[in-house]
Design goal:
2 domains, mainly alpha, flat
């Protein structure tokens, strides 16, 4: 029952967000393939679908979280804030390498596995987003590719 109430409240908030996303957010020009207006709209649609599924069939298990899980959630929150702060000054590649390396370690990867994954995701993600998708990402200390 609590899941349905929570999902219902979030659905109301999401509908308000959707109103803003579909009616108020207007960009004078588009600088990427989808445009700045599309992302809030896509987020709204996916959120409404997810919340309707949650309202239809809520989770039946109790939410009994142990202390180590709360600590990991706090660490993830700190990592996300750090990623957001380091994104512009360090650039996409370095910030992503740092974030994904520490996230991988948090998910029990070895240091080597985490570093390889971080570097691969940072470099390939940058190349795909800038080359294939034509997005503007901060390059940090690296020259634009």
């Amino acid at each position: 029952m609590v899941d349905r109430v929570f999902a219902g409240i979030l659905l109301l908030v999401t509908i308000c967000y959707g109103y803003i996303a579909f009616t108020i957010i207007k960009a004078p020009f588009q600088y990427d393939p989808l445009g700045p207006e599309s992302w809030p709209q896509i987020l709204c649609i996916l959120s409404v679908i997810s919340l309707l599924i949650l309202m239809w069939k809520p989770d039946v298990e109790s939410f009994d979280t142990k202390r180590p899980t709360w600590i990991k959630l706090a660490i993830v929150t700190v990592l996300l804030f750090a990623y957001a702060e380091l994104y512009e000054p360090l650039g996409f590649i370095i910030a992503t390498v740092i974030f994904t390396t520490f996230m991988s370690r948090l998910l029990q990867a070895t240091w080597l596995q985490a570093a390889v994954f971080g570097v691969t995701l940072g470099v390939l993600g940058y190349l795909i987003c800038t080359g294939l998708l034509g997005l503007n990402l901060p390059s940090g200390p690296f020259p634009k590719l």
